[in-house]
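Supplementary notes for students who missed Thursday's class. We covered one full example, reproduced here. Read the sequence, then the structure, then the short commentary at the end.
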Amino acid sequence: MEKRTARLTLLIDPTKKAIFEEICAAQDLTPSQVVRRLIRQYIIDHADGRELPDWLKPGSGQSG
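Structure (token representation):
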């Protein structure tokens, strides 16, 4: 499992941000949880043969 965290800053339209936060809250998720899931899935989908840590491989059951 990951041992450190790093900050990722992004710019987003305020209207999209508000809608995103509202949807996250309705699903009892934080925006950070959702973004981490999206990034994890993006890495898995586009790894192009890169060796991934076991906790990042498809089916590892790791959430967030």
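Commentary. The radius of gyration is 14 Å. The first helix runs from residue 14 to 26. If anything here is unclear, bring it to office hours.
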